[in-house]
Amino acid sequence: MRTDEALRYAQSRDLDLVEVAAAARPPVCRVLDYSKYKYEQAQKKKTAKKHQTQVVTREIKFRPKIADHDYATKKGHVIRFLKGKDKVKVTIMFRGREVTHPERGRMVLERLVEDLGDLAQIDQRPNLEGRNMTMMLSPSKAVINGTWVPLGDRDDGEADDGDGVTVDGTAEAPAADGAAPEAPEAVVEEPAADEVEESEDAPADEVEQADDAPADEVEETTAEDAEVEQVEEPASAPADAS
C-alpha cells in the first residue's frame, strides 16, 4: 500500500500509522493508537526491571601501614556497601619498597574479613597485581535475603556488646545512663572468736610446759642421787665388821 493511502486509512479510523520494522523491504507499518502503544511499552520495560538485579561494584583502598582509626573508618564504609547489597573491591596500595612485604597487605585483608564476620563472603582471594593487592567481597546470602542480624542484636544468651559484666558467675546489671558504676565494697574478714581464744591460750600452754620441764628434770636427778646413796651404804658395812 502506498504511504498516502495508508495515512488516509488510519485517519478514517481515528488511529495512527506507526512504522514497526523500518529495516524491512518494504517497511512494515501498523495502524494503532500510538499513545496506548507507548504506555504498553513502558509497562513492559518496568516489569522487566523488577526481575533484573543490578550489581554495583564499589572500590575502597587501604594502605599496608594504615592506622587503627583510618582502618575503622574504611571498615564502616565497607559495611555500608555490603548492607546496600553491593560488591566491594578492596585494594591494598603499596608504595616504594613496601611491595617487598606483601604479607603486610594480606594481614590487613585477613583482618578485614575476620571483622566483617558473616556479613560478607569472599569472591576472589587476595591477589597481587603490580603494586596493588586486590580482593573481591560480596554480600552474604543472609544480607541478600534480608535475614542478616547484627552480632549485638542476636539472642545468644550472652552479652556480646558489653552491656553486662559477669563476676564470679553473677551477671551485674549495667549502670544507668550518665551514672558512674559503683565500686565493689571491700570485704574484711574478721577472725572467729574460737580462733582468737585458741591463739591467746596457746602461749599459756607453752609456758606451763616450759615451767614443768625443769621439775621433771629435778625429779630424775634426785632419783639418780638416791641410787648412788643406796650403792654407797653397803660398801661401809664390811668395814664395821672387820
From TrEMBL:
InterPro entries referenced in this protein's UniProt entry, alphabetically: T_IF-3_C_sf (IPR036788), T_IF-3_N_sf (IPR036787), Translation_initiation_fac3_CS (IPR019813), Translation_initiation_fac_3 (IPR001288), Translation_initiation_fac_3_C (IPR019815), Translation_initiation_fac_3_N (IPR019814)
Protein name: Translation initiation factor IF-3
Organism: Patulibacter medicamentivorans
UniProt-annotated stretches for the region Disordered: 147-242
A GO CC term assigned to this protein in UniProt: membrane
GO biological process: ribosome disassembly
Subunit structure: Monomer.
UniProt record similarity statement: Belongs to the IF-3 family.
Coiled coil: none
Superkingdom per UniProt: Bacteria
Lineage: Bacteria, Bacillati, Actinomycetota, Thermoleophilia, Solirubrobacterales
